[in-house]
Amino acid sequence: MTRSSGAAGFSCPAVAVASPRLMDAVAASLAIASMSLCLMVTLTVLAHKVGAGVPLPA
């Protein structure tokens, strides 16, 4: 398959839109958010398993 040499698509070179420190801060905050979400899901599953073993009071 050959490509035409026309101006179709994104032919411009990549341009940095944010500083590296800002991108590092965003990446760190996303990592912290995903870890806290995993921790919340884990605690919820464990609490559900512990609660399933406890009989309901009559």
Task: Report on this structure.
The protein is mainly alpha-helical and 58 residues long. The protein has a domain at 21-50. The protein has 1 helix and no strands. The chain has one helix at residues 20-52. The N and C termini lie far apart (73 Å). 0% of the residues are buried. The mean pLDDT is 82.
List the helices and strands and how they pair.
Blueprint: H1 20-52
Provide a brief overview of the structure.
This protein is mainly alpha-helical.
User: What is the multimeric organization of the chains shown?
Assistant: single chain
Low-confidence stretches: none
Determine the structural class based on helices, strands and strand pairing: mainly alpha
Q: What's the Cα radius of gyration?
A: 25 Å
Give the beta-strand count: 0
Largest sheet, in brief, is: none
Head-to-tail CA distance between termini = 73 Å
Please report the number of helical segments: 1
Instruction: State the helical fraction.
Output: 55-70%
**Element order: H for helix, E for strand:** H
Question: Mean pLDDT, rounded to whole units?
Answer: 82
Q: Estimate the strand proportion.
A: under 5%
The coarse silhouette is: elongated
Labels describing this entry:
single chain; 58 residues; mainly alpha; 57% helix; 0% strand; elongated
